[in-house]
Sequence to fold (108 residues):
Amino acid sequence: MNWQFWLRGRGPAPLSEQVRHAIVDRYRTADENVAKLSMIRKSGKFAGRKVTHIRVFNPSDFPPEITSFSDLDSDKSSIRYTGRIEKGGYLYLDRPMKKYRHNPDSSI
Fold:
């Protein structure tokens, strides 16, 4: 039995199939580049609705101690995509407009 159920959903996780597909399809990013990325999520609200906020990042751009959504606030320029998942599974994903300081390869 898993007694650490309260930790479920904490910390970075592999991209969900929905997020991976959106990045590959919408942003024309090679699948092998997307495989390097991780995501972190947190529950919240958007325009009064309950949503799940997500951030997509390359784990090599951050220290390994990332455990929460706010841990990425220290270097927002390295967050590759941000977005939210609405009730019913609707995904809204944005790519911040910036130059990547850590990785000049803008394909990811």
